[in-house]
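Entry: DNA-directed RNA polymerase subunit alpha
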Amino acid sequence: MSTSVSNPSRTSALPRITSPWRSVGAVVCLFWLVMAVIGPWLAPHDVGQVVSDDIFGPLSAQYPLGTDYMGRDMLSRMLVAARYTVGLALVAALLSSMIGTFIALAAAVSPRWLEDGICRLMDALIAIPSKMLALVIVAGFGSSVPLLIITAIIGYAPGAFRIAYSLAASLYTMEYVQVAQTRGESRLYIALREMLPNMLNPVLADLGLRFVFIVLLLSGLSFLGLGVQPPDADLGSLVRENIGGLSQGAAALIAPALAIGTLTVGVNLLIDRISSHRNGR
């Protein structure tokens, strides 16, 4: 006599756990994205206009984020700086992820000798610290918005490649890929139609991480004076130029630093939410 024993999944026996912080992350990311798009039009003053004789002025109804080291309105400067920080990081992260993913797909479906060559090249680039690479490039060629984007791509596309390649190499051994090969489908078709759709969720999660890394990289370069150059400024530049207000606890220094912190934490919370949905939690 045989008996059947039911073995319910542990996941189904556990209550569904939701965290309000994941929703907070989405709200924070949406806020900064909106500010990057419409912020400059909301600025109450011209970004370079000296509006007060009070240097490192406190928070007030007239100047909600105080004034900076020259008496300029910090709210106006932050609304404009957010466009540079979010815009540059978003463009660089998207391009890094796209380039890394498509190189990974090309390597996964290529002959073994070419696959090995691509992997060795990417491993060599990954071994170079991104901040050191950025310092060398900017010091050698000067600082400009296009060069900052290119620098971030060179620094972070290899990492995106490594994540995407591990996924692509695993998918290439799946039965549905073998069936497509048997049907005589081209390598391009297999990469884009059979493999890429099954990689999207992990790649999107990695894209969020690339964005955070690039925000911190560009902010660090700007803090060293090698990022966005005057008269333009990003959030890192605002921290650097108002560092003289550190001893006073000036809002002109604290506000951009908090902005960078909330942006990076918000993106991390959003990534956690995406990952949880992917895992069915």
